[in-house]
Amino acid sequence: MTTVMLLLFLLLCTTNSATAAAVESAAGGDHRLAPGNNGGCGGFKRMFSFGDSITDAAEGLGLPFLTPFLRAKTPEDFRQGANFAVAGATALSQDFFKKMGLDLTIIPPFSLDVQLEWFKSVLNSLGSTDQERKEIMSKSLFLMGEVGGNDYNHPFFQNRSFTNEIKPLVPKVIAKIENAIKVLIDLGAKTIVVPGNFPIGCVPRYLTMFQSKSSLQDYDEFGCIKWLNDFSVYHNRALKRMLHQIHHDSTVTILYGDYYNTALEITHHPAAYGFKKETALVACCGDGGPYNSNSLFGCGGPSTNLCTNPSTHISWDGLHLTEAAYKFVAHHMLHGPYAHQPSISPK
Fold this sequence. Notes:
The protein is of the alpha/beta class. The protein has one domain (4-334): Rossmann fold. It contains eleven helices and eight strands. α1 runs parallel beside α11 and α7 packs parallel to α9. Residues 1-40 have low confidence and may be disordered.
């Protein structure tokens, strides 16, 4: 499917380090991203991405598909970038979740710190001197995530306490993202994109999981669970505050990707964008139930129900968006009201 890399292509082909004054941080004011005049993609020669299954590669970047780190055989495989993202990966370590007492069956040992170490080994293989490595860093695009979603998904899906165990993870997750950004800047990175989290209260898997535990007062007028969306906002606000405060000079551009509001727009007004109102919260590929998302691994299982027209659905498998939904996100991050740098609430 067309995924978040297409969004990044559209977003970042409009800016480079020369426009840092206009978009220098996630809280730099209400700056729209205007189309660039150089006809290129910001001068980027390669791309490096970190995170989980939300991170993927799209043809629109104008580069070959990124090589997954674990599949590469020689440094030549990384000449135009690498994808360090792993499905299910977290910001926090697997050992952290082990100490929480979580079942580690679907929590891979490839946290953000591990992915950073992978990147360092790739960088050293591509450049033999400090100058060569700095040159590589300055002409590369870095995508930091989406990071954090799985740090919350795993304990949510294992029925852990939201108040006592899940919400307190937010500052720990943000600290890991902050450290990763600082590492990249210290190594010479000039352009880093840091996406926020999606509105999980509108995600079919979460809607199914909390259906029996929710009252009418828990839902908004669009059918999303309010307190879950409030949690996504809580994470995103903390992320933006960190991006605003992180130290960097004027040659470094840090962009915040507002996935939350772009996804919320099509959820609130599906018919206006070619989606069906009656399936706005229903997975295209799933295993039954009111949201077609009865279990975490319903898509592809023996009881899979597959919709006939995925382009009318927002959710593909109960956790990820469809191609049509990702296209909307990409277009409106560039042209629409989500192409500016959002302000930060003091709370």
